[in-house]
Design a protein that fits this description.
10 strands; six-stranded mixed sheet; ubl conjugation; alpha+beta; 2 domains; Ubiquitin-like (UB roll); 239 residues
Length: 239
């Protein structure tokens, strides 16, 4: 057992492949490694390690994808004129702001989650926004974020040691203790090859709308908040 190193191992975690001897050790290893115990169906497997079990797993995964896609295509919401009209209006308004907004078919998680709206009276977007703090392994979802709000104001409840919530402050301690000049906001560039992932660096002093102009957005923006002094594998466009 790789947790207690005392008993003979009986189980192996499908996710991280750690050996365990009992339910107690299984729970301990999940807690220590933040492991959910669910096998990663899209994890890379080298040809040398590829077995019949991997082949069967991939086949079943493709079957699940086919069933999900078929069910989504049959969903009544897909063919609803109201839904199509709202999405067309949303994309059209975004295009006028020089934002290439793209929506996914029904059945995709981001499509279900997205709560972005456009207020015709105020002529303003209220965005569904996801903030990712990779150095703290934390994610936060914001709803109804006005497009004229600056990124600095959006991040204050998370990175400002005075204005942030005590629980959030403790979890994002590495961010709140760092100077604001060290905080960098990145957004992934869509439609690039998997082996050529790049990020755009955003300007915290400018509004959300200004930062989104000229960019491709799939459903809603996802912002990655990183620290310049810490090494990360996110390559900014141009570097």
């Amino acid at each position: 057992c790789e947790t207690c190193s005392e008993e003979e191992a009986k189980y192996r975690c499908p996710r991280c492949m750690k050996y365990s001897c009992s339910l107690l050790c299984v729970k301990k290893h999940k807690l220590a490694l933040s492991c959910n115990g669910v096998r990663d169906k899209t994890a890379f497997v080298s040809v040398n390690e590829f077995t019949d079990l991997n082949l069967l797993s991939d086949y079943r995964f493709l079957e699940d994808v086919g069933r999900t896609a078929d069910a989504a295509a049959r969903h009544p919401t897909v063919h609803s004129p109201t839904t199509k009209k709202l999405l067309y209006c949303l994309r059209n308004k975004a295009r006028r702001c020089n934002i290439d907004l793209r929506t996914l078919p029904v059945g995709f998680t981001k499509r279900r989650e997205n709560s972005t709206t456009f207020n015709g009276m105020e002529k303003k977007f209220y965005w569904h926004l996801k903030l990712v703090f990779p150095h703290s392994h934390a994610e936060y979802t914001l709803k109804g974020v006005p497009d004229d709000k600056t990124l600095a104001d959006i991040l204050k409840p998370y990175t400002d040691p005075v204005e942030s919530d005590p629980v959030v402050c403790q979890r994002l301690k590495i961010y709140t203790m760092s100077p604001q000049s060290d905080v960098q906001i990145l957004m992934k560039i869509e439609n690039r090859k998997q082996n050529s992932v790049r990020y755009n660096e955003l300007d915290a002093s400018r509004s959300l709308l200004d930062n989104l102009k000229g960019k491709v957005i799939i459903e809603y923006p996802t912002l990655f908040v990183v620290l310049k002094t810490l090494k990360n594998d996110m390559v900014v466009l141009g570097q």
